[in-house]
């Protein structure tokens, strides 16, 4: 197969432009799809990302990194390759990266979802010959709750808790998921409190012009008696910790695509599970792949084995590539 | 189905007992009688008859979802529940009927009388008119096995709240061989004669493992006998009939026909709590009894080879009177009188009292339990009544320490239900010369955090896949605890363990120091 991109020990590599995309080992030049920890890693010589993704990447990897920014759709020549970034709909600033050499076009999806979450720049299909896609939820049992139904579920849970004088503790990843939920909930119900990890990301996103409802950081001094009924947003790892136990009485919820599975929901031991993911569901993955018009598909992380076979059944030249991306962590790892 | 689905959702969404009880009590106050009765039946382990094989259900669901069967099969272990997998892959419903739970159960009974094409049409139509939760519940009814995180005890408490009746009285009413087809809400729950059913047993009193020996007081306060290694059973003799119940409320009367002779020797209105044991001049190992219990009908030859007796622990009913409130000392005295004059060929024995001057002396007797084919000692406060269910304080089991071996994990498989997607079912091996020989599986004893850590390790260290099973390098060492060991020609190792589980993860134990196959065979010679 002609190699616009190849797969190396360090990550996805473009020989014509001598750069890597979302590498997991230190390399001289890295193009980054988005700021989650398994895609944007420390130790690269130079970085390139969208303007909208840059503040979070700087926040996480340090202000001193050499970071070149670009806008969606703008073409940049790197060596003999032409690259451009296109909205992936995953989190604010997230991109699919299009690479063209000698008339052959490959696209790296990074993480993506096809549903407009009201926060991230909505996913845009990009025509290509070869598509490198994630498939975190690449099985037909994963079909997401529509966004408006989800908003209704979370708001009525919070409203009931607030009426009963309970805190609503909601676990969600600090970049993307938390802010998506902030824009879904009805801030009229009660105050919204945040864990430090989430408030830090909120501050970064607010300073780049993303509007979020008023939130209040939980500090050791905070007077909780005047804030009963509040929604408390925290990273999944904080649920069930000593930090979370101060909110009494409480009902706990967890927001993840994995909440579609009853077994996982029960294992989390939260009172409620809300099915919400920043990855594409079964229909989303299939629609996105079809829309690229690609003949060849590489699947990187998720249910790669069955998803590849399904794609091959549909007539694609489909392959599994082994990478070090995590997708959405099943058992509450922080932020992927 | 909407009301039942709402109840299920509430139960499923909370870990709080009070919320669960309140939700069930509300259902018992508001639903129609047929639905209430089915709810009680389902939550007490009764279910409608199977209408269709799960093979057909898988095929039809995959077909309806527009995915190949192999992809459905790949999804099933990820979800960990067949009915849920089906509910998740099917497209959204196109109609809505609003029919109650009992309607859908009636529909299952109607379908059971039709040919396969008609059943398929009926089931597809049902799936197409139920939302995701209702569909899951309907399919659960189709596949059997309706465990949804509510114990019978909790359901009974809700029933007590809703009806104003006593908890224990309701527990008693719910025992026995009724099904929603053979009774009604009013005769099962509302009727006032709890002894209408001659076969009805009493709830078993169950003991917890002893926690604190120092809190027991003097040994003389306690009646002590052996914890026999058989099957706990209750023999009910009323109106010239006999019924034999297992602790799981299973009727075993036909499998143990020799106990029928007791009708001739004991007065009607007698209920005895005891342990079934295979017996030849003394108790035989548990696997001898298993030969008898495993089969529905008993050939004459087996009946002669493996005779069974009831080792009597307690007397619950005498002359038709419930005497469970009396102190154990009195019940025991009456039991002794009852059994005293029986000829030796009658298959009933009295569990002998074990005596010792001090707890240390008793500990020595306990340590030798395996020599008597017993699992330890039972401590029962002499003044205690016979309670219902598992209760702390008056009865304790003081089991002998388990046998243990150190072994290495060689295969891992993901669990079901709340353990879906988590590797929890492992195969273990001992050293055998230069290689390893598998000898047991185990899937309990570790914390969720340990299972998560092992799951990550298995994902990174898979050598080979055999369907859902992954072969891993022999590196992780565990202490395997078990209650007994017996010969088994079916297994490569030549042995089989009783109640194997992981006692702990031995991070400290090098692979070179795990046990060997010859160690296991020595244990077999000593304890088998």
UniProtKB/TrEMBL annotation, chain A:
<dbReference type="GO" id="GO:0004521">
    <property type="term" value="F:RNA endonuclease activity"/>
</dbReference>
<dbReference type="GO" id="GO:0004527">
    <property type="term" value="F:exonuclease activity"/>
</dbReference>
<keyword id="KW-0378">Hydrolase</keyword>
<dbReference type="InterPro" id="IPR026360">
    <property type="entry name" value="Xnuc_lig_assoc"/>
</dbReference>
<dbReference type="InterPro" id="IPR050698">
    <property type="entry name" value="MBL"/>
</dbReference>
<keyword id="KW-0436">Ligase</keyword>
<keyword id="KW-0540">Nuclease</keyword>
<dbReference type="InterPro" id="IPR036866">
    <property type="entry name" value="RibonucZ/Hydroxyglut_hydro"/>
</dbReference>
<keyword id="KW-0269">Exonuclease</keyword>
<dbReference type="GO" id="GO:0016874">
    <property type="term" value="F:ligase activity"/>
</dbReference>
<protein>
    <submittedName>
        <fullName>Ligase-associated DNA damage response exonuclease</fullName>
    </submittedName>
</protein>
Automatic annotation (TrEMBL), chain B:
<keyword id="KW-0547">Nucleotide-binding</keyword>
<dbReference type="InterPro" id="IPR036599">
    <property type="entry name" value="DNA_ligase_N_sf"/>
</dbReference>
<keyword id="KW-0234">DNA repair</keyword>
<dbReference type="GO" id="GO:0046872">
    <property type="term" value="F:metal ion binding"/>
</dbReference>
<dbReference type="GO" id="GO:0006310">
    <property type="term" value="P:DNA recombination"/>
</dbReference>
<dbReference type="GO" id="GO:0006281">
    <property type="term" value="P:DNA repair"/>
</dbReference>
<protein>
    <recommendedName>
        <fullName>DNA ligase (ATP)</fullName>
        <ecNumber>6.5.1.1</ecNumber>
    </recommendedName>
</protein>
<keyword id="KW-0131">Cell cycle</keyword>
<keyword id="KW-0436">Ligase</keyword>
<keyword id="KW-0132">Cell division</keyword>
<dbReference type="InterPro" id="IPR012308">
    <property type="entry name" value="DNA_ligase_ATP-dep_N"/>
</dbReference>
<dbReference type="GO" id="GO:0003910">
    <property type="term" value="F:DNA ligase (ATP) activity"/>
</dbReference>
<dbReference type="Pfam" id="PF04679">
    <property type="entry name" value="DNA_ligase_A_C"/>
</dbReference>
<keyword id="KW-0067">ATP-binding</keyword>
<feature type="domain" description="ATP-dependent DNA ligase family profile">
    <location>
        <begin position="301"/>
        <end position="432"/>
    </location>
</feature>
<dbReference type="Pfam" id="PF04675">
    <property type="entry name" value="DNA_ligase_A_N"/>
</dbReference>
<dbReference type="Pfam" id="PF01068">
    <property type="entry name" value="DNA_ligase_A_M"/>
</dbReference>
<dbReference type="InterPro" id="IPR026333">
    <property type="entry name" value="ATP_dep_DNA_lig_pp_1105_fam"/>
</dbReference>
<keyword id="KW-0479">Metal-binding</keyword>
<dbReference type="InterPro" id="IPR012340">
    <property type="entry name" value="NA-bd_OB-fold"/>
</dbReference>
<keyword id="KW-0233">DNA recombination</keyword>
<dbReference type="GO" id="GO:0006260">
    <property type="term" value="P:DNA replication"/>
</dbReference>
């Amino acid at each position: 197969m002609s190699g616009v991109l190849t797969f190396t020990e360090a990550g996805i590599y473009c020989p014509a432009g001598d750069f890597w995309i979302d590498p997991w080992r230190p390399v001289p030049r890295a193009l980054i799809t988005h700021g989650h920890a398994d895609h944007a890693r420390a130790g690269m010589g130079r970085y390139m990302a969208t303007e909208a993704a840059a503040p979070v990447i700087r926040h996480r990897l340090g202000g001193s990194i050499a970071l070149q920014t670009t806008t969606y759709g703008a073409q940049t020549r790197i060596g003999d390759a032409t690259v451009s970034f296109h909205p992936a709909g995953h989190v604010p600033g997230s991109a699919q990266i299009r690479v063209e050499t000698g008339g052959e076009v490959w696209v790296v999806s990074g993480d993506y979802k096809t549903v407009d979450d009201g926060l991230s720049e909505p996913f845009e299909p990009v025509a290509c010959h070869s598509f490198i896609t994630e498939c975190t939820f690449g099985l037909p049992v994963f079909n997401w709750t529509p966004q408006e139904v989800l908003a209704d579920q979370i708001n009525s849970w919070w409203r009931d808790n607030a009426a009963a004088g309970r805190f609503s503790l909601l676990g969600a990843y600090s970049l993307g998921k938390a802010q998506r939920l902030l824009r879904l909930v009805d801030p009229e119900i009660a105050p919204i409190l945040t864990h430090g990890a989430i408030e830090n990301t909120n501050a970064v996103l607010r300073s780049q012009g993303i509007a979020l409802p008023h939130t209040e950081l939980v500090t050791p001094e905070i007077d909780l008696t005047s804030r009963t009924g509040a929604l408390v947003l925290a990273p999944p790892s904080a649920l069930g910790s000593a930090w979370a136990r101060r909110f009494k009485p409480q009902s706990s919820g967890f927001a993840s695509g994995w909440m579609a599975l009853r077994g996982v929901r029960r294992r989390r031991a939260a009172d409620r599970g809300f099915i919400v993911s920043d990855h594409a569901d079964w229909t989303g993955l299939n629609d996105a792949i079809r829309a690229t018009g690609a003949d060849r598909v590489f699947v990187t992380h998720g249910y790669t084995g069955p998803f590849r076979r399904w794609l091959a059944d549909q007539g694609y030249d489909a392959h599994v590539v082994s990478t070090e991306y995590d997708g959405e962590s099943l058992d509450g790892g922080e932020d992927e | 189905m909407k009301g039942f689905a709402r109840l299920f959702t509430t139960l499923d969404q909370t870990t709080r007992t009070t919320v669960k009880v309140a939700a069930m009590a509300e259902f018992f106050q508001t639903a129609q009688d047929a639905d209430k009765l089915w709810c009680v039946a389902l939550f007490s382990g009764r279910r409608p008859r199977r209408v269709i094989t799960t093979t057909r259900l898988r095929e039809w669901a995959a077909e309806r979802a527009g995915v190949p069967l192999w992809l459905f099969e790949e999804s099933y272990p990820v979800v960990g529940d067949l009915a849920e997998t089906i509910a998740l892959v099917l497209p959204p419903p196109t109609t809505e009927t609003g029919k109650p739970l009992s309607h859908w159960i009636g529909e299952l009974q109607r379908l059971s009388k039709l040919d396969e094409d008609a059943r398929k049409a009926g089931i597809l139509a049902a799936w197409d008119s139920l939302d995701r939760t209702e569909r899951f519940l309907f399919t659960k009814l189709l596949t059997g096995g309706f465990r949804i995180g509510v114990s019978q005890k909790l359901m009974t408490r809700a029933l007590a709240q809703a009806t104003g009746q006593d908890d224990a009285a309701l527990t008693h009413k719910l025992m026995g061989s009724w099904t929603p087809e053979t009774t009604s809400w009013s005769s099962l729950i509302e009727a006032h004669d709890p002894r209408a059913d001659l076969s009805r047993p009493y709830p078993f009193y169950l003991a917890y493992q002893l926690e604190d020996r120092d809190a027991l007081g003097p040994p003389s306060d306690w009646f002590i006998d052996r914890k026999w290694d058989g099957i706990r059973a209750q023999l009910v003799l009323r109106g010239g009939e006999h019924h034999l119940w297992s602790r799981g409320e299973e009727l075993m009367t036909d499998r143990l026909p020799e106990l029928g002779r007791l009708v001739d020797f004991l007065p009607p209105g007698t209920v005895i709590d005891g342990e079934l044991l295979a017996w030849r001049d003394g108790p035989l190992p548990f696997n001898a009894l298993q030969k008898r219990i495993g089969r529905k009908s008993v050939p004459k030859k087996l009946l002669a080879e493996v005779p069974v007796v009831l080792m009597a622990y307690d007397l619950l009913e005498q002359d038709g009177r419930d005497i469970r409130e009396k102190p154990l000392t009195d019940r025991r005295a009456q039991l002794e009188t009852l059994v005293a004059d029986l000829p030796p060929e009658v298959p009933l024995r009295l569990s002998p009292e074990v005596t010792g001057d001090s707890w240390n002396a008793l500990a020595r007797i306990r340590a030798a339990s395996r020599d008597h084919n017993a699992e330890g000692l039972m401590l029962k406060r002499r003044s205690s009544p016979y309670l219902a269910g598992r209760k702390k304080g008056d009865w304790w089991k003081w089991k002998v320490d388990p046998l243990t071996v150190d072994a290495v994990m060689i295969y891992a498989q993901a669990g079901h239900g709340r353990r879906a997607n988590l590797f929890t079912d492992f195969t273990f091996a001992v050293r055998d010369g230069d290689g390893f020989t598998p000898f047991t599986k185990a899937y309990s004893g570790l914390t969720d955090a340990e299972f998560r850590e092992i799951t990550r390790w298995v994902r990174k260290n898979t050598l080979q896949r055999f369907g859902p099973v992954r072969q891993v390098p022999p590196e992780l060492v565990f202490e395997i605890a078990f209650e007994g060991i017996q010969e088994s020609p079916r297994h490569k190792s030549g042995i089989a363990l009783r109640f194997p589980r992981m006692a702990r993860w031995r991070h400290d134990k090098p692979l070179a120091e795990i046990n060997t196959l010859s160690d296991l065979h020595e244990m077999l010679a000593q304890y088998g």
